[in-house]
Structures are given as structure tokens and as C-alpha cells.
Amino acid sequence: MELLIAAMLMLWGNVTDGNPGVTLDQIAQIAELPPAAIVVQPDGTKSVDPLVPAGKADPQAGSAPTVKGVYATAHSAGGARLETLLKLMDETELNALVVDVKDDFGYITYKTGNAELEAMETTKKIITDMPALMNKLNEHKVYPIARIVVFKDTVLAKKKPELSFLNPDGTLWNNGKASADSFVNPYSKEVWDYNITVAKEAVKAGFKEIQFDYVRFPEGFETRADKLQYTKDERSRVDAVTSFVKYAREQLAPLGVRTSVDIFGYAASVPAAEGIGQDFIKIAQNTDVLSPMIYPSHYSTGWFGQKVPDAAPYATINGASVDTNKKLEPLETLKPIIRPWIQDFTASWVQGYIKYGKHEVEEQIRALKDNGVEEFLLWNAVNTYTAGVAY
């Protein structure tokens, strides 16, 4: 993309020398850059936004199903629970499985055979036979999606602290939670390439889509950005994160796979989250599928007019969907497929929570359909999904 922009600007210079009436907008049209790529500066001059993709097209247009899927840990996908999940899909309209290929700790969950990755000693062989798993998914006509947790990566951070964030005393920073998670640095091209290598191996294994999660800086990073030690450049945190997403899609689209990104659901309802580096629009225009995590339990009192959003699954999902559609409307041809994560678990830690079952899951799906959203993913951390749901 950078080469395309450079060539376009050179072309503009050459053309306008002999044809002063030719505009940057006309050259952008020739280069298949969308109108959003042209930025008008305060002085009226125009420039090209390098984070807007050129010639964006779905690499699986016309071939991918309308995805209705569930999440599976590597332990579930590689163990006895797989049969339960396959039975669920055989008996319902569910047709996709999101499998941890690089998990929340940072472990690559199967032996890839890639010498570079195995030399990192970040592989934990949880899925013992990946070809057998892929064969089973194919037999049951299940669309396979590889989940890769990107910047939350305690394993890599401990292996290579220079790719992470260090406290002023030189020790490795963690988020202070019980799990003591560490993140790696979104500014680091080495981190980008490591994750994309994992993604490319997943493609070789047979996955049709790569889903990137934790594509952000740690929560509350803006409060400690100036205290921690880490490598950075002149880019904003938003541009660093967006640049990774854009680069990842450029690397994966030629392989015929989709790129998808998980993002906080509330990001559609607020301006860009500068602290963690997530801009809903900038990420959306650089991915094939966007999966806002709009679990009702994740919204606090007052959202969408609800005292307890968790207790109002239809109203909460409806409100989140309205905001998402409104936010993405200006993207036009750059708009990705919207495939939200919804809730199939009971959030007992939420004050005023309700027990989630068949009715609550169906209410969320109804709200999505009422807003023109046909695809969705169900989240349950232990992969126990409600029976009898009309999907």
C-alpha cells in the first residue's frame, strides 16, 4: 500500500506538470483509492491518508457462509468437548467455530512445524492433532476461524521483555490482575510479524478466517504511558494499532482468507479510545469482518436507557446495533461485515443480573436481525452453550 501511495503521488506530480487541471481526486480514482483516502488540510490543500485501504474487496465474496458461530478454547477443540460442539452444529443453524490458535496467555496451541516459531518456545501443544481437527470440521461443514490474541501476550513479554513495557525500575509491567497479564508493544514490527507468522501457519492448517483479539494497548494505558519504558515512534497509539490491522490484512488477503477483528462494543457509541489505541472507524475500514463485543453484561447503568443492561438483552443489543450501523454508515464500500459477539453466559457478578438461557439468547439475535445484522458469534468461556435456541 505504501508503494501504491508513493507511486500515485509520483504520478500526480508527473501528470500535473503537463496537465495542471488534473486533481489528486482524479488520480486517487485511477489508483482505486476511496474518497475517504483524500484528506483536506486546514489550508485547503489535499493529501492521502495512508491508513485508508485501496481496492478493498472481500477475499471470500460469494463463497463464505452467513456465519453463526461459537467460541472454543484449544482444550475444547482438541478434546472430548468437540463432539458436543459438532452435535450442536449438526442440529442447529450454527455453522462456525472460533478456535484459540494463540491463546490469552500467548501460547501457540498446536505444533505448527514452523522452525522460527518453535525456536521461540512459545508453543504449548494443546491441540495434539490439528489435521484431524480440520478434517472433522470439514466433514461437518463447519467454517473454521482461528482466534489469535495479539498484544495481550504474557508468554512473549516474559521471553522478550524488550518487546513489552517495563516499569521505571526495569521490571516487566503487568496489569495487576490476579492473572498478572502483560502486553507486548503495538509499535513493534517484530511483534506484528510474529503474530502474522502464526496467522499464516493457521491458514496453511486450513482456517478460512483469522480473527485478531486484544488489538490494543492495555486498558488505562494513557495513565502510565509516560512512566513506562518502551519503544515508540511519532505515530499516535491509534495509528500504531490501525497500521497493524492494515498490514495484517495486506499480508493475509492474497491467501484468500478473511481478516476479522474483535473490538469493544462501546467503541461504536463513543469517540476514538485514544488511550488503548482503538478507533472504531479506522479499524473497521481495514478489516473484512468486525466483531464488536456487545455483551449486555459489559454495559453499565444508563446505557441505552437501561438501569441494568444485562437484564435487558433486546434493548441493549438493539441500542448497540443502532450505534454500530450509524457509526459505520459513512464507510460505504469500506464497510466490513458486522458479526458481533453476543452473550450465552450468566454474569452473576453484575448487580441486578438475570440468568441467561434460551429466551435471552434469542432476544439478542432478534435485536440483531431487527437491525439488519445476520451474523453473530456466541461467547461462553467454558464453551457450554444453551440448548434449544432458534438461531
What's this model, at a glance?
The chain has helices at 2-18, 24-30, 74-77, 81-91, 115-119, 130-139, 154-159, 189-205, 237-252, 280-284, 313-328, 358-370, and strands at 38-40, 46-48, 68-72, 96-102, 143-149, 209-213, 258-264, 289-293, 337-338, 341-343, 376-379.
Envelope shape: globular
N- to C-terminal distance = 40 Å
Q: Which spans have pLDDT < 50 for at least 5 consecutive residues?
A: 1-19
Number of strands: 11
Count of discrete structural domains: 2
Q: Structural class, from secondary structure content?
A: alpha/beta
Total number of helices: 12
Evaluate the radius of gyration: 22 Å
The portion of residues assigned to helices is 25-40%
- On the 0 to 100 scale, the average pLDDT is 92
Give the strand line-up of the largest sheet. Answer: 9-8-7-6-5-4-3-11-10
Q: Which architecture of the largest domain does the CATH hierarchy give at level 2?
A: Alpha-Beta Barrel
Strand content: 5-15%
CATH-level-4 superfamily name of the largest domain: Glycosidases
Kindly describe this structure.
The chain is of the alpha/beta class. It has two domains: 1-55, no CATH class; 67-379, TIM Barrel (Alpha-Beta Barrel). The chain is 32% helix and 13% strand. The chain contains twelve helices and eleven strands. The protein has a nine-stranded parallel sheet. The protein has a two-stranded antiparallel ribbon with strand order 1-2. The radius of gyration is 22 Å and the shape is globular. The chain starts with a helix and ends in a 12-residue tail after the last strand.
